[in-house]
Design a protein that fits this description.
The protein is of the alpha+beta class. The chain is built from three helices and ten strands. Strands 1, 2, 3, 4, 5, 6, 7, 8, 9 and 10 form a ten-stranded antiparallel β-sheet that branches. This is Peptidase.
């Protein structure tokens, strides 16, 4: 009986196992970790100091070479002594970057869709902005200054006073020419020496696994061919 069908089944099974393992690596590698963080805002308003603690949630969705960032508030942080008519209040905020990047990302909300009664917390809702990474690595996003613009002026400017932790950790990978580590202290340039920084992301692990699987398949095929030739003699 020919052993060819058995060899084909073994090869197919090994190929499938490598493919499944590679998919598992990709599926199990998180690109972002979000956490709802309580932010204690101290607000300077036109009617004196205000303040409140609001849980803040920050998320990122890949959009081409950039990310759409959303910042959501579960509670209002200030109120108004007078009614705010529909469409007169717009919130905006700065998100402080850390880790592999620095600076801020600006996010902005939409005007209020309904009138806000006096002496009630102003609903901030969801603010949206765009983040374009400059290099590979883990980037953190932390709630910064929140500004409530109403009735043609900045009615409240709120700053976190409890030193909140990041609400989002985003793993940026796949940027061409991106760097996972800062340049050497002496100012050396990896590109000028032709060196390539090591790649340690989940995608690279999957590619390495696929390469290993391909090597195993080729080695197995070579062994089968050698045994076949010896038998034929």
């Amino acid at each position: 009986m020919s052993k060819e069908p058995n060899r084909r089944r073994t090869t197919a099974a090994l190929t499938a196992a490598v493919a499944v393992a590679g998919a598992a690596v990709l599926a199990g590698a998180p690109t972002a970790q979000a956490a709802v963080v309580d932010v204690n805002y101290a607000c300077e308003t036109k009617i004196g100091p205000k303040g409140a603690v609001s849980p803040v949630d920050i998320k990122a969705v890949k959009n081409g070479s950039a990310y759409t960032i959303t910042m959501s508030f579960e509670k209002g942080v200030s109120d108004s002594p007078v009614e705010l008519p529909k469409g007169v209040m717009t919130p905006r905020a700065d998100l402080v970057l850390g880790g592999a990047d620095s600076g801020t990302v600006k996010v902005k909300g939409t005007p209020n869709t309904a009138a806000i009664p006096p002496d009630t917390p102003i609903s901030i809702g969801t603010l949206t902005g765009t983040y374009t990474p400059k290099k590979n690595g883990k980037v953190t996003f932390t709630a910064g200054t929140l500004t409530v613009h109403a009735l043609g002026m900045d009615a409240a400017v709120c700053t976190p006073k409890n030193n909140p932790g990041p609400s989002l950790e985003l793993e940026v990978t796949g940027l061409s020419g991106g760097s996972d580590t800062p340049p050497p202290a002496d100012g050396g340039d990896d590109e000028s020496t032709g060196a390539e920084l090591p790649k340690t992301g989940p995608l690279d692990s999957a590619m390495a696994l696929g390469t290993l699987g391909g090597t195993v398949l080729l080695t197995g095929a070579a062994g089968v061919l050698w045994l076949t030739r010896r038998t034929a003699r």
